[in-house]
Amino acid sequence: MTHPLIPQIIDLATPVAAELGLEVVGIVFHTNQRPPVLRVDIRNSQQDTGLNDCERMSRALETSLDAAEIIPDTYVLEVSSPGISRQLVTDREFISFKGFPVSISTSQPYEGQQEWTGQLIRRDETNVYLNQKGRVIEIPRTLIARVQLDERR
């Protein structure tokens, strides 16, 4: 389940990233760790995302988060590049990676399984469509925990 502060953090982080020529591609708040870890994945659309991009984003976002006082307690901020094995989150990513091999994890079993692999067809308002050896599988978005590129295939 997504942490309730994530939408506010996205609203804050997106313009910070844009000012630096970067894009936020994912945010996860691991509150089960002490101190909690806020992980922000970024991408530089002009070139390979480098350590310098992560450092610039970390400094700028830390300043904005502290000023906004969204997170009341101590936390660790991690800014990184998701790399090729990353999760697909945005509509743009689902369009860009159409036809690519993906693995899908569901939060509970769907049609008897929780892990699905195949070629990404598309995503709409209600389902993610997967091609498994010529057979189209429709997986309800409400059950999907994660969709990521499957680099093993």
UniProtKB/TrEMBL annotation:
Location of the Ribosome maturation factor RimP C-terminal domain: 88-149
GO biological process per UniProt: ribosomal small subunit assembly; translation
Residue ranges occupied by any Ribosome maturation factor RimP N-terminal domain in the UniProt entry: 13-84
GO annotations of cellular component type: cytosol
Keywords: Cytoplasm, Ribosome biogenesis
Job description of the protein: Required for maturation of 30S ribosomal subunits.
Record family assignment: Belongs to the RimP family.
A Pfam family: DUF150_C
Protein's UniProt name: Ribosome maturation factor RimP
Subcellular location, record wording: Cytoplasm
InterPro entries per record: Ribosome_maturation_RimP, RimP_C, RimP_C_sf, RimP_N, RimP_N_sf
